[in-house]
Amino acid sequence: MKRMTKKNEYFLAVVLAALGVTLLFVCLVVGIFRGIFSGKEVVKKPEIDYSVIQVAKPEMQEMYLTKNVNSRPGILLEKVRGVVVHYTANPGTDARANRNYFESRKEEPDEKGNKVSSHFIIGLDGRILCCVPENEIAYASNVRNGDTLSIECCHPDKTGRFNQATYQSLVRLVAYLCDKYELEQSGIIRHYDVTGKKCPKHMVDHPEAWADFKKEVVAYLKKCRIKK
Ligand SMILES: [Zn+2]
User: Fold this and answer.
1) What's the pLDDT score for residue 18?
2) Cα of 45 to ligand 1 centre, how many Å?
3) CATH no., domain 50-223
4) C-alpha span between 226 and 92 (Å, rounded)
5) In this predicted structure, what is the pLDDT of residue 21?
6) 4-13 residue pLDDT tens
């Protein structure tokens, strides 16, 4: 076998060195680009772009409870981080009756010693009553009283299923509050998600009904896109 000449050895060394430098350069460039792109991935895109959504305030009637220690303590609700859906567990009763029940508890807690109230109550006719202002806490959602708004829904029977009028108002009200406080979908919760209590009963017994409800809220938000 023919031995390499000095000149050939030198040439080979130069080629290998050039290859090495090129490889290093390629690695460096790829590394920088991957860094840039992975950096972009870290910035999470919001689920819902509220800058292009405007939900009209649904019609609602203010029937605030009188300030009292048991149902309207007047404690400031600093930041709304969620909306909690409830059912009244009182079949066939309307919104006003439930509101008056909260009012009647101003002197003492309920029979179990619980303080009870809610920001909103939606009646069987779909009308929305406001019982506690949105910037004050209500006593409905246990450990989440301090950073959520509560909605009690009336229902015709023991199944706890909301009728169409109540359901449609609930979709509109939750969408409106989501827009107003720029809530993520994870901020829409059931009382069940806070304490494990079967509330709202039908949407705990039928998780698919709860999933459908959240989808309807998102669909409603998308319908409220501002046309530019
Ligand atoms: Zn509840």
Assistant:
1) 77
2) 32
3) 3.40.80.10
4) 38
5) 72
6) 567 777 777 7
**pLDDT recorded at residue 199:** 97
Tell how far the Cα of 224 is from the centroid of ligand 1, in angstroms.
Answer: 29
Q: Which of 169, 159, 174, 166 is nearest to 206 (CA)?
A: 159
pLDDT of residue 95: 98
CA 174 to ligand 1 centroid distance, Å: 16
Nearest to 89 by CA among 204, 223, 1: 204
Distances (CA, A) of 96 to 62, 75, 86, 88, 148: 11, 23, 16, 12, 22
pLDDT tier at 29, thresholds 50, 70, 90: low
Whole-number Å distance, alpha carbon 195 to ligand 1 midpoint, is 9
The reported pTM is 0.80
The secondary structure of the chain in percent helix, strand, coil, rounded to multiples of 5, reads: 45, 15, 45
Q: Residues with Cβ within 5 Å of ion ligand 1?
A: 86, 191, 199
Calculate mean pLDDT across residues 119-141: 97
With a cut of 90, say whether residue 41 has pLDDT above it: no
Cβ proximity of 99 and 121 under 8 Å: yes
Can you tell me which residue has the tokens 């619980």? Answer: 114
Would you call 210 exposed, middle or buried from its count of C-beta atoms within 10 A (0-12, 13-18, 19+)?
buried
- Report the pLDDT value the prediction gives residue 68, as an integer from 0 to 100: 92
CA 116 to ligand 1 center in whole angstroms: 10
The CA 87 to ligand 1 mean position distance, Å, reads 6
CA 79 and chain centroid, separation: 13
